[in-house]
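Quick sanity check, Small RNA 2'-O-methyltransferase:
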Amino acid sequence: MFLTISTTHQPATDLGFLLHKHPDRAQSVPVSAGTAHVFYPQATETECTAALLVEVDPVKLVRGRQEGGLAQYVNDRPYAAGSQLAVALRAAFTTALTGRCAQRPELAAMPIPLSVRVPSLPSSGGVDLVERLFAPLGWQVTAKPVALDPRLDWGESRYLDVELRATLRLADALTQLYVLLPVLDGGKHYWVSDDEVDKLLRAGEAWLTGHPERTLITRRYLAHSRPLVGAALSRLAEADSVEPEALDDALADPVVTEAPDQPESLAVQRQGSVLAALRASGARRVLDLGCGSGALLRVLLTEPSFTEIVGVDVSARALEFAARKLRLEQNDRRRARVSLRQSALTYVDPSLAGYDAAVLMEVIEHIDESRLGALEHAVFGAAKPGTVIVTTPNAEYNVRFESLPAGRFRHSDHRFEWNRARFSEWAHNTAEAHGYDVRLLPVGDVDPEVGSPTQLAVFTRKEGKA
């Protein structure tokens, strides 16, 4: 694992004071899986570069793991800039991360030109994710994929050669790298416990609350642990004096809400289409999976044939918001029909089995495509409702939104938006794999060139498939 930090601030050798590592000698620091070395490939008055090289001991790396054979030794941890490098960054530059420099205090408080190079950076979201994470913080991002093998035409790997340029305080640059390196990797080499929330909030104190990808950063840094993510978002909200749900991108307002030349808003049209499909199915016990703040739940309450309605969401704050909007505490009759549960849709929840119907309204696009298989298993394979209704944006229709910049999604939390062919492919493959029939329907007026604004699929479990 390798990372360099360079500056052209003059005298550039002052970088040694800021990092508390003298340019004239190499220094080493022990870390959990080996040794971190700091040295200076270049140290002149006009330009100075500090390098962090992490030498991983493969025996230390796997100590305490239970895997057998070679599997525990064969991984990218010794080479890729993930959580191991973040830990080494903290160990090697502990004082610099705090922004303290006794010999150059004015320099520690000053933004200086910085360039960071990471030649092997894993990114489970490609170049786009690096841009989304670093550009809002003032970094200019240059990234190119690393070939699987430059001698053979095997295509690109998931690793990037990345250079970041910005004028920032060195302490800010280091804390951002400390948080975002493992976020890009999408995993950590150590157990994520309660103290990780404190680490995240300390490191992100100056910039995380205002970051447009704060929820994604929080989820990935905390390894998608629901209790830890909820605690972190609540504390961020308290620190910034805002409602906690305002920090949850899944509850944020979409970029577009109105379709051109449509008689009603997209939200109203989707709700009406879902309600019609549920009525046609004859369902009485209904799940609203990914219910968010409860917009669909309010509509379902207007249908007396639904005797039991369950709203499910991974966000505890979203459920609290839904309960307030539905006034469940003040209305006994509503509380008898509606219940709210916190659950992740990518994990099997036995309590969700046995319902007549389930709705995923504008939900799947909020889940990383790599996790959709887990959602399909949890909903279609384990819960097995008689009917499943799914809606999602039609990406082809996006060109009709004048307020939506080219290449942008309709919502800041969307992981993807599919065209009609891709949605049809997914729906038919899912139905075939789990014993359902499926019908695809438009939501909203159909444009002859790009289709309807929203796509809807109605899955019906085949007879005899239990």
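Posting the structure with no commentary besides this: Residues 64-78, 240-253 have pLDDT under 50 and may be disordered.
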